[in-house]
Each structure stands twice: as structure tokens, then as C-alpha cells.
Amino acid sequence: METAINIAADVRSGKRTAESVVRESLDAIESGNGKLNALLGVFSSAIEDAREIDRRIAAGEDVGVLAGVPIVMKDNMLVRGERCSAGSRILENYDAPYDSTVTTRLRAAGAVLIGRANMDEFAMGSSTENSHYGPSRNPWDVSRVPGGSSGGSAVAVAAGFAPIALGSDTGGSIRQPAALCGIVGLKPTFGRVSRHGLMALSSSLDQIGPFARTVEDAELVMGVMQGKDEMDATSSYAPAGASEDKSANEVKGLRVGVPKEYFVEGMDENIKKSVLDAVAEFERAGAEIVPISLPTAEYALAAYYVIQPCEAASNLGRFDGIRFGYSSEGQTLLESYERSRGEGFGAETQRRIILGTFVSSAGYSDAFYKKASKVRTLIKRDFDEAFKRCDVIAAPTSPSLAWPIGEKFADPLSMYLSDIYTVSANLATIPAMSVPCGFVDGLPVGLQLMARPFDEQSLYRAGKFYQSVTDHHLKTA
Amino acid sequence: MISNEQITHIAKLARLRVEPENVAKTAGELESILVYVTKLQELDTEGVPELAHGDGLSNVFRADVANGCDQDERSRVIAAFPHREGNLLEVPAVFQDRTE
Lengths: 477, 100
Prior knowledge:
The structure holds two protein chains of two kinds.
Chain A: H1 4-13, H2 18-36, E1 39-42, H3 46-58, E2 70-74, H4 101-108, E3 112-117, H5 151-158, E4 164-169, H6 175-181, E5 184-187, E6 207-212, H7 215-225, E7 255-259, H8 269-284, E8 288-292, H9 300-315, H10 333-344, H11 347-359, H12 366-386, E9 392-396, H13 412-417, H14 423-428, E10 432-440, E11 443-451, H15 456-469
Parallel strand pairs in A: 2-3, 2-4, 7-8, 7-9
Antiparallel strand pairs in A: 1-3, 4-6, 5-6, 5-10, 9-11, 10-11
Helix pairs in contact in A: 2-3, 9-11, 9-12
Chain B: H1 4-13, H2 23-37, H3 71-79, E1 84-85, E2 88-89
């Protein structure tokens, strides 16, 4: 699959039709999805939407910078009239009544939405094994997980079903599957992209972002999606930053921070080597490598697994079996709630609801929820301090390579530990991106780049440079 | 140590039904996660404010007016109701036991 930039250029210039591009995508899905279970459904309107783009181009209209680009949505983003299940049984028969803001903006730029990607139920998980519809499979080795929770989206891009897919990232759910599948995944700054029409998981952490093969493609999609939306009060007015970056592919003088807490004794030596080799590329090109410290980093995962379940338990309260979704009647109202939720939610979702309810309940909320929210401030201060001395931070994305399906499924805590390098960016609300930086035993490794709030521009600059001097992103499964 | 009674109580607060045979397993899982997150207590957070929104946005207001929605959206929202009669939405009785 070629890049979104090339496809849009071809379609806009009339070299190819949007319909032919979308048909290629649908053919790839048709032949490959049975094995990978990346997509839960294809949108029936895709071909007609593509034809409409072609008609408008034929009529001389400018249809936008994503002309004819096929895009896969995560199954928690609303597309009017299409099924949207969030990987859950409780929404097995739910059709979206309206469009999310990202849906509207992508279509307004000429993109064609082609289907919805598998995910861990309500975006809780690191492997897609928590999907009610079965796990997605890693295209580099189908016996292994693709990561999660946006695993289906990552597989869709890695397998060439589409050049772009959207994910949502609450604690690493875009970056970690991007790393495990060998593609680019960007979690923007909190507030950068509207969440109107995204099913809420953890409202102080969730962000929508793109998967792509190249940093240029991710930047292109961000340009379309980002910016204030009156429908999301938490979306930010922050300006987008310069779109044409003179220093692209050039990092002379860029200060790259390397946090010692992310390279500790006992970590996977091969992953460590891949990431440090990547850092060396920056140094060779004239970047300044700055050793930094993020002393609260080792507490980030603990803070995350208090705050995230609290917010999830609250947000998932809307599933009552009455207004939408799976409904099971009991003898009393209480029993109807308990049955609808007990039968509709999967095991991990129930586990987090129990955990979140416990740590926010009377007698425990000071020790857990409030404590974690204060620790969150300390984590943010660490980054504020670090960014006085550097412009981007380089670290691993995932502590492990893609693991065999089933390996961590029975042990929730070991699954949670796979988010150890990614949760900090969500807690500190900063942008972070995973870029392919090598292979170990034929499995991809991801380099994580982090930057100051609303400075995605530095991530693009660093990422584009890195992809210009390496070819990891050009390899396909 | 998380007791089985605590799990049953929390599940009730969360409006979930944990099957009796799963209560002990749930308690064990919760216990192991709580042991891990208890490391937060090692940090001194005296005088540190809680962080809720990183962008510092606050008091985001809009006019208190109903915007409504188009007919298509309205009918889709109604169609999503599990129990209804035409456009009338059916909800269970709040105060009555169904056996009464």
C-alpha cells in the first residue's frame, strides 16, 4: 500500500480514481482479513463515497488533501448509520446515530472511510484479546498479538489494507500496537483532536490519533483532524504550529533527551540496543544528546491504574440496558442493571469497573484516587523540568516484542506492565509518537518520541529525519 | 486483604453481578493490583495539587440552549432503545418489584 500523500496526489490529478483506490483496499481486506481479524466490518457506503469523490473531481472541485484516501476507523468512533460496538457484546447491535467530529473532518477532506477495526473491549487492554469478537493477529507472526487496544487499526495499516487508520490512546493504545506492528502511531497532545463521537473511556486521558507508515502521512491526517471543536469542551484552541517545516529531515541542534529511568537493568537488551542505535542516528546528524531524569516515572503505571479505572467505571455507568445496547431483564430494576452489565461486559471491563469503583469508594479515594492525581502532577513536573533541557525525549515504546496470543491473558498485572513506557505521556498530557526502529527475531521494535504539550511539530521533525536515514518503515510483513 | 464481602459490596455499587464462584478469583486479582498501586504511598505529595486537565482549560461555557438534532439522528437514537413501542421509550419501574 502506498502512502496517503501519493494516493491523494494521484486522485486529485486524475491519474487514478478514488473508486479504484478504494476497491484495491477492499480487495486486500477481502483476501487478508480472515487470517488477521483486523476489521470487524466494512462500510457499505465506501464504494459510493469514492464515486462521489470522483464525480466532484470530474466537475473540477477541490475535494481536499485526503482525496480518495481509504481510512479505517477504530470501532469506538461513530460513523452515522454504521455498526459501532467498541469490541463489546453490550453494543453488538448498536448503530451510530450521528458522526464523530473526526468522521466529519476526514470526509470533508476527501477521505473515504472503509471499515471499523477490532479493539480490546472499550479500549481496555494491550493485545486485542479482550475483544468480544476474538483477537486480531500480528501480520509479522500470526500466532502473536498485534498489541492493543487499537490492535485492529495497527494491523490494517501494517497489512496494507489502508494507508491510514485511526486509533484512540488512553495509556498507549496507539503507540504500543504501532510498535508491535512496525508502523507509525501518534498520540497527540490532550485536547488537540476533538473527541466528540468517540466512546469515552477515561476522559482526562483519551486522545484520537493516526496510524500510518510514514510520519508525513500522520502529519497530513493530523492537519485535517486537529483543532478546536465546539462539540468537545476539552478540545484546545492551541494553534497548529507551522505546517511547512523548513527543518524537516534535519535535526542539527535538536536536543534529544534520553531518560535514564527508561533504560533500566533487566530490560530487554535487544529492544534497548535498537532504541539506543536510533538515538545514535540523531547524534550523527548533529543533534545534541542530553541525559535526563524523570524521577517519578516508576510511579506512573501505578497512578495510571488508579486514575484510568476510576474514570472508566464512571463513563461506563451509561450502559444500563435501558437506553441502548444489550438488555437483560431481571425481577427488579437493580437486577436488570446487574444482568445487562454482567452479561454485556467482558471480564477485563468488569475487572476495571470493580477496581475503579473500589479505589474511588468512601474510605479509599483519598489513599488511591486523590493520591494518584497528585502523583500525576509530579509526573507532569518531571516532564516540564526535562523539557527545559531538551526538545524531544527518546525512549522505547514497549518493554517487549509482540508476544504469543494467550501468554499474558490470565495475568492482568503482567498485561498492565506492558503499558509501562507509554502511560506517562497520557498522564502528563504530552504528545508522543512511536516510529519503527528495527527488528528483533523478525519482530518490529518501536522508538517512542515525546515532546512538549502542543509541540507535535518537533515529533514530526524528529520522526521525518529518522525515517529519511532508515528503512525499517519500508519493510512489510 | 480484600474479602469476598468487599467484592460483593463493590459489585453492587458498580451494578455488576459477580457470580458466586468468581468472587474469590476477583478478590485475588484486585488484591494483586492494589498491592502494586500501593507503591504510590512511597511518594511525598504534601502540598501537591491534583492534576485533572493538563491544558489548564477551565470554565468552558456555552449558551444554555437546546440545539436539537435532525430527524434522521432522532430516529436512530430511538431505534437504539432496547425496549419501546413506536416512539414511546419503555423503561423499567424504579420503585416496584416486578413480582408485586
